[in-house]
Write a structure and sequence with these properties.
The protein is α/β, with parallel strands linked by helices and 304 residues long. Helices cover 45% and strands 14% of the residues. The chain has a seven-stranded mixed β-sheet with strand order 3-2-1-4-5-7-6, sandwiched between helices. Helix 8 runs antiparallel to helix 9 and helix 8 packs across helix 11. The N and C termini lie far apart (40 Å). The protein binds S-adenosylmethionine.
Amino acid sequence: MTVHLSVMPQEIQETLIERFVDFQESGVFVDCTLGGGGHTSQVLQWIKRHNLSHRVIAFDRDGVAIQRACSRFEDDIRLERLKVVHAPFSEACEYVKNQRVYGVLADLGISSDQLDEGQRGMSFRFEGPLDMRMDQSKGISCFDYLHHIDQNELENVIRTLGEEKFAGRIARVIIEARDQKKLENNSLFLAKLIQNSVPKKFRYGRIHPATRTFQALRIRVNDELEELDSILKDMVTCLHEGGRMGVISFHSLEDRRVKQCFRELHQKKKFSLVQKKAWVPTDEEIASNSRARSAKYRVIEKVR
Ligand SMILES: C[S@@+](CC[C@H](N)C(=O)[O-])C[C@H]1O[C@@H](n2cnc3c(N)ncnc32)[C@H](O)[C@@H]1O
């Protein structure tokens, strides 16, 4: 069972899914970020309702999300209406070469399933090892990463990927703890260490002082920006004429990249922006799904 609530389902319905079922010749919808399967399920329902032979191919680098989807969508997989792939979305293009790709969605970041599972170490609200990997079968954990870098690099990561003004102090305290063999492989320990490293008046504000550092480390451990750059470059080339690609991002580092890339494509006149400004969730959606509050959604279309 997933606890993840899909973000902006209505906007995705109107801009991507309804458009997708308009194409008569059979084609593919690529869900780059399967997660709890909410958006994939939406697309599948429309394919069925319109009695089309279109298919969905959905990617996730998280093996747990893939397993969950295999049982949730057992029938769709058996009927070859859905294919799920355990791989990073930077590899998605290879899977859809020579197919008619009418729609692509990337709903970036992590799901509530990952965030709320203490053992993943993604959140400072739950106790668990400092792992933070979306794909726990590959790469190195956050704890190992912290043992492989120097203070300057850590400061730079926290400053650039977390946009954290106390990056210098936080990096110093973490590296000192590590060098004194006091750094524990524990999310709550790291959160407390960070909290105590910022000036006293910033320790108990509305936003926990570890928020930005955790975000930065997670982005680094999972190469999230490199992954995003890769689909922005590759997936648009896979789109069929009239096909659309939508990206939901959750922080300015991501949105800036999406905005700039889509704008450049639009200027080259082979693509058009479906709407100049990003869509943001309605107040109603934010009230029922607080995770949606920082979402921004942009869509581009390949011109016919
Ligand atoms: C925000 S959730 C997606 C939620 C999904 N749209 C839904 O409706 O349930 C993001 C998911 O994408 C996966 N993910 C993030 N970056 C990825 C990447 N580079 N390649 C493959 N999967 C990725 C995460 O593991 C996570 O399960």
